[in-house]
Amino acid sequence: MSAVTQHLLLAGERTATQLCELGVRRGGVLLVHASMRSVGEDAGRVADALCRVLGPEGTLAVPTFTPENSDTSRSHQDHVRGLSDEAREAVRAAMPAFDPAVTPAPSMGALSETVRLTPGARRSAHPQTSFAALGPGAQKLLADHRQDCHLGEDSPLARLYEADAQILLLGTGFDSCTAFHLAEYRLPSPPRRVYRCVVSSEGGRRWWEYEDIALDDSDFAALGNDFVRTRTGATGNVAVGTGTVGIGRVGAARSHLFPLRAAVDFAAGWLAKHRAGGC
After folding, report:
1. Which terminus of the chain has fewer Cβ atoms in its 10 Å neighbourhood, N or C?
2. Longest dimension (CA), the chain
3. How far is residue 40 from each of residues 46, 100, 147, 222, 263, measured CA to CA in Å?
4. Number of Cα atoms under 13 Å in the Cβ half of residue 158
5. Are 191 and 214 in contact (CB under 8 A)?
6. Which among 23, 142, 171, 190 is positioned nearest to 180, based on CA atoms?
């Protein structure tokens, strides 16, 4: 065995050990948001370590969102700001149509793409906020993702809630904690807006417009800070079975592990109190 191969194997074992120490449940369901740049490890090795720790009965899920195919997305609006009408239309005409079998999710990072491209992975059908998953629970988690429901009761987030999934923020902050969006759907009369994206169909490329909750992650970092403050034990790295937040390093990255249900339930109360109209 070469020195390089031995180093890679040891790095994978170290990552798996760190995940176990953080509290990833063997045989459980895990939703991961990851920054490989922060972790400092190869995405393939991290995916392997995650699957090894979860075991053959566990299921690994990742977001595979595609704002690139929408002219109502924040990323598109930032991209075309300041362009002429003609240039805007050229950008819009060149947008790739969403096809769950082949459309990449470049803004979601290397780990999400690694999972999406792994043989046997499944992907939900929403043209903007799809998820991919590996493992025996993947089909149940991803089936019936209604195309006019980004992240609500007819999305994989609700199925992850029912499955008592854990969330791992692997070198990312709570501003990327997608599960908090499920709490937005559970607020009374949440604001709604129109979304538009381009999709593949039998007739070719077509634009599709629909109405859904007006998703807003602008206060998720503050929400996450309060969630951690109320749920972290004295050691700052405690078991997560009781709804607390585990904090530790995976690779070079400070990471958080916690139950999705606890996060969503806390977020529902927090958002009701802190957003306009709250008391």
Report:
1. C
2. 63
3. 10, 29, 35, 26, 27
4. 14
5. yes
6. 190
From CA 144, how far away is CA 162, in angstroms rounded? 15
CB 65 within 8 A of CB 107: yes
Query: Where residue 7 falls among pLDDT bands split at 50, 70, 90?
Result: very low
Q: What are phi and psi of 274, to 5 degrees?
A: -95, -20
Q: Model confidence over 131-163: pLDDT tens digits? A: 999 999 999 999 999 999 999 999 999 999 999
With H, G, I as helix, E, B as strand and everything else as coil, classify residue 266: helix
User: To 10 degrees, what angle do helices 220-231 and 260-274 make?
Assistant: 120
Integer Cα distance of 125 and 172 in angstroms: 25
Q: Would residue 237 be called left, alpha or beta, if left means φ above 0 and alpha means ψ between -120 and 50 degrees? A: beta
Distance CA(182)–CA(212), nearest Å, equals 12
Tokens at residue 121, please? 């992975």
Q: What is the pLDDT of residue 79?
A: 84
Tokens of 79: 């991209």
Residue 240 — φ and ψ, nearest 5°? -100, 5
pLDDT digits (tens, 9 = 90+) for 8-35: 344 568 999 999 999 999 999 999 999 9
DSSP 177-191: -TTHHHHHHTSSS--
DSSP assignments along 121-144, one per residue: -EE---SSS-EEEESTTHHHHHTT
188's tokens: 């009374």
Cα gap 118→78, rounded to integer Å: 32
Nearest by Cα to 259 from 220, 231, 219, 222: 231
- Global pTM value: 0.90
Above 60 in pLDDT, residue 235?
no
